[in-house]
Amino acid sequence: MDRLVVYNTILSTRLVPLFYTPQISVAIDVTRCCLQAGAKVIEFTHRGEQAAVVFAALRQEFNKDCVLGVGSILDAPTAAFYIAQGADFIVSPIFDPSLASLCHRHGVAYIPGAASPTEIVNALSYGVEIIKLFPAAALGGPALLRSLRGPMPWVKILPTGGIPLEEKAIHAWLEAGAVAIGMGSELLRREWIVTQRFDLIEDAVRKALNWLHAFQSQPRT
């Protein structure tokens, strides 16, 4: 998928649910629940056994039905493998110039992690469009994002890590200037995935999206 389409879809939906499971059938059900709830962008993380096999199955199952990317990528060879498997975007907890070059050569969206002004500017200099602030909550929360955007108001930041499934918390990040939010275990909870409580997963994703859209519709003073 064209990387500009990927970026615009992230910016319009403002939510990136992310998860990992070694079970293909469960991964398919979790993804389907996210889509049914209204999410359009899904990140499957490269974090455990069978990750590549599960991702390939997801790509085949949801060929053109969603924007499907892979996260927790630390090196260009791994990214190249997933790009060959049809990944629409690559997410990393770090910034790596070789990853940026690889993704840009293939027209694939690259969302690297950064935690400081220097890391952010370094990523921007390589043509990165959206930067993942990670681990967002541990780094300082919305207050940090507000401070970072002071001298760099044009930066598009996607905070990820430790953001609770609470309307107040989500709105605080948006008020600080987040263009979208990445949510993993707080949204797609491990116990729900293990026990296959797909109804709870769908409800949580729908709730988060409703809060995000409610913020967008609020009048600004």
UniProtKB/TrEMBL annotation:
Superkingdom field: Bacteria
EC assignment: 4.1.2.14, 4.1.3.16
Principal EC category: lyase
Keywords, in A-Z order: Carbohydrate metabolism, Lyase
One Gene Ontology MF term: (R,S)-4-hydroxy-2-oxoglutarate aldolase activity
Keyword NADP tagged: no
Residue ranges of the TM segments: none
Pathway given in the UniProt record: Carbohydrate acid metabolism
Xref: CDD domains: KDPG_aldolase
Pfam families with a match to the protein in the record: Aldolase
NCBIfam families assigned: eda
Family of this protein: Belongs to the KHG/KDPG aldolase family.
Subunit structure: Homotrimer.
Protein name according to UniProt: Bifunctional 4-hydroxy-2-oxoglutarate aldolase/2-dehydro-3-deoxy-phosphogluconate aldolase
